[in-house]
Amino acid sequence: MISAQAIHLGPIMLPWPLVIFSLSLVLAIAMAKQFSQRFTVSVENWHQFKDSIWQAIWIGLIIGRIVFVSMDLDYYRLHPIDIIKIQDKGFHFIAALLASTLWILWKNWKNTRYVSIIFLVCCFSFSSIGNWGYKKYQQQYQQFPQIELMDLQLKKHRLSSYIGQPTVINLWASWCPPCHREMPVLAMAQQRHPNVNFVMINQGEDPTTITQYLQDNQLQFKHILLDQEGLSAEKTGMYGLPSTLFFNAQGQLVDHHMGEISQSVLDQKLKKAQGKY
């Protein structure tokens, strides 16, 4: 399945930014290969250049993760095991990009500097163009969903009524394991951020099932809404579960997260929604 946010291969979700980067990388390597022949780069130096790219990706991921962790060191001191839980997608993009770029230039400056520069320019250009097109397409999903849903008491609520405060919208279901794991994180965040609306939109389940699930797991949320027809997924383009969207007080989407979210990632995205950075 292909959605506005990702390519869905069964339980695996490939976000479009990752797909765009991967395609840009392949195209940039192909361009660098063409120029390597013009600059008469030896086979040995070409293999060294390609190896440096894969090394740079790993170095970028490691540095990006280290910088991300350092930004919330108090939390990770208390939960050190969470440092290696990279499924939360907690990486500092700029630090990762800078580390990768410097590594490629340093490793290849002596023998293949021109090929390296061409590769980096092509990779950045292709990625920028791809992400620009993706963001243009995404503009239709940037506004607050204009839909009406019912709560557990079958009372109707318009989502637009939450505009005026920073709002977190979470799409979930009780049968979804990563949803289950992140629910306590969201419940605690709701207590720590009373000025933020946490709107938990259940996908396709009945009030009895939801109520029983919340009671069994001792979870309390102020705003629980039912979405039997998948309207919220359709309006936001977020078809994978769990999915979390972050809106500022003006109702503008400032960030989103696909998959299980950790406390540290949640806290940093909440700062964006509240305009703290």
Automatic annotation (TrEMBL):
<dbReference type="GO" id="GO:0042158">
    <property type="term" value="P:lipoprotein biosynthetic process"/>
</dbReference>
<feature type="transmembrane region" description="Helical">
    <location>
        <begin position="52"/>
        <end position="69"/>
    </location>
</feature>
<dbReference type="InterPro" id="IPR013766">
    <property type="entry name" value="Thioredoxin_domain"/>
</dbReference>
<keyword id="KW-1133">Transmembrane helix</keyword>
<dbReference type="Pfam" id="PF08534">
    <property type="entry name" value="Redoxin"/>
</dbReference>
<keyword id="KW-0472">Membrane</keyword>
<feature type="transmembrane region" description="Helical">
    <location>
        <begin position="112"/>
        <end position="134"/>
    </location>
</feature>
<keyword id="KW-0676">Redox-active center</keyword>
<dbReference type="InterPro" id="IPR013740">
    <property type="entry name" value="Redoxin"/>
</dbReference>
<dbReference type="GO" id="GO:0005886">
    <property type="term" value="C:plasma membrane"/>
</dbReference>
<dbReference type="InterPro" id="IPR050553">
    <property type="entry name" value="Thioredoxin_ResA/DsbE_sf"/>
</dbReference>
<dbReference type="Pfam" id="PF01790">
    <property type="entry name" value="LGT"/>
</dbReference>
<dbReference type="InterPro" id="IPR036249">
    <property type="entry name" value="Thioredoxin-like_sf"/>
</dbReference>
<protein>
    <submittedName>
        <fullName>TlpA disulfide reductase family protein</fullName>
    </submittedName>
</protein>
<dbReference type="InterPro" id="IPR001640">
    <property type="entry name" value="Lgt"/>
</dbReference>
<dbReference type="GO" id="GO:0008961">
    <property type="term" value="F:phosphatidylglycerol-prolipoprotein diacylglyceryl transferase activity"/>
</dbReference>
<keyword id="KW-0812">Transmembrane</keyword>
<dbReference type="GO" id="GO:0015036">
    <property type="term" value="F:disulfide oxidoreductase activity"/>
</dbReference>
<feature type="transmembrane region" description="Helical">
    <location>
        <begin position="12"/>
        <end position="32"/>
    </location>
</feature>
<dbReference type="GO" id="GO:0030313">
    <property type="term" value="C:cell envelope"/>
</dbReference>
<dbReference type="InterPro" id="IPR017937">
    <property type="entry name" value="Thioredoxin_CS"/>
</dbReference>
<feature type="domain" description="Thioredoxin">
    <location>
        <begin position="138"/>
        <end position="275"/>
    </location>
</feature>
<dbReference type="GO" id="GO:0017004">
    <property type="term" value="P:cytochrome complex assembly"/>
</dbReference>
<keyword id="KW-0201">Cytochrome c-type biogenesis</keyword>
<feature type="transmembrane region" description="Helical">
    <location>
        <begin position="90"/>
        <end position="106"/>
    </location>
</feature>
